[in-house]
Amino acid sequence: AQRVTQPEKLLSVFKGAPVELKCNYSYSGSPELFWYVQYSRQRLQLLLRHISRESIKGFTADLNKGETSFHLKKPFAQEEDSAMYYCALSEKGGGNKLTFGTGTQLKVEL
Amino acid sequence: SQTIHQWPATLVQPVGSPLSLECTVEGTSNPNLYWYRQAAGRGLQLLFYSVGIGQISSEVPQNLSASRPQDRQFILSSKKLLLSDSGFYLCAWSPGQANQPQHFGDGTRLSIL
Questions:
Q1: What is the domain partition of chain A in residue ranges?
Q2: Which CATH topology does A3-109 take?
Q3: Which residues of B35-45 are buried (b: 16+ CB within 10 A; e: fewer)?
Q4: Taking CB atoms and an 8 Å limit, are A49 and B103 in contact across chains?
Q5: Using the beta-carbon criterion (under 8 Å), do B99 and A96 form an inter-chain contact?
Q6: pLDDT of A30-84, one tens digit each?
Q7: CB A96 to CB B102 under 8 A?
Q8: Residue of B24, B25, B34, B44 whose CA lies nearest to B87
Q9: Which residues, given as ranges, of chain B have pLDDT below 70?
Q10: Domains plus CATH for chain B?
């Protein structure tokens, strides 16, 4: 069965420091991976997806099939990056079902 | 553009009472629809999903049920609520094509007394 693991419940960094939110997955096929973010008092929203290979709000994520990882990175953290981040894996087949990790709370301190 | 509406935002219900949470999507046709429960420290658990009217797939056995009476309407129900049904419920939609991202509503905070 597929699985998404986010080992850190809480990650605290100082403003301007690099950020790396870890995500590992297990899946028997070719994965489709996403990062979602939930800012305080806002709805859960898509941050980026691996197939787009884009940078959103300074964040990037590279799929490493050898390490089965999809870590989210940003070179310089900003205070507004403080939020809950979820990694998610899309199942093949009908329904576009997602398997979510348990989430990492990122706190950027001044 | 597409929008998703979910209501009510908060609900307090006594044990044993019925439940109906509603979710509607605008600006798209034949979306996939989803109900999740979000628990602190446990991520999002998929409860039900639907790929079309009247088509419901249940992911976990529980006291809840879902229905899709119209193309863009998804309802989460229970005949008799249990204390363990308390939680934060999220509705989401995605386009019908494969590997498309999901888009979430604001959620409903359900408290059972």
A1: 3-109
A2: Immunoglobulin-like (2.60.40)
A3: bbbbeeeebbb
A4: no
A5: yes
A6: 888 999 999 998 999 999 998 787 888 999 998 998 999 999 999 999 999 999 9
A7: yes
A8: B44
A9: none
A10: 3-112 (2.60.40.10)
